[in-house]
Design brief:
This protein has 5 helices and no strands. With 95 residues, it is an all-alpha fold. The chain folds into 2 domains: 30 residues; 63 residues, no CATH class. α4 crosses α5. It starts with a helix and ends with a helix.
């Protein structure tokens, strides 16, 4: 009986540790530059929320260690979004 109770506690602790690990790994993936870029494109193209997309594109471009091609894509999309917002917003961004 004591061995069964001890085994159950160890198994429960192992399952809990695995759940914590999976949760933290998923959270890190959701904030990866690639995931941010996907959310930004969705905000821009599907939701039409250019300001939210611009914030996400900026986060992608500013991420340390981001792939150069991904950063470049984010910057290009930022430029296009500013053009869509109008000249005044683009001028503010360049300051």
């Amino acid at each position: 009986m004591i061995a069964t109770n001890c085994t159950f506690k160890m198994l429960s602790a192992l399952v809990l540790a695995m759940l914590v690990h999976v949760t933290m790994t998923t959270a890190q993936r959701n904030n990866s530059p690639e995931a941010l870029m996907q959310r930004a494109v969705q905000k821009e193209m599907v939701d039409g929320d250019l300001k939210a997309a611009l914030d996400l594109y900026k986060r992608v471009a500013d991420t340390r260690g981001v792939a150069p091609a991904l950063a470049a894509d984010a910057l290009i999309r930022m430029g296009r979004a500013y053009e869509s917002l109008g000249n005044g917003e683009a001028q503010k961004a360049s300051l």
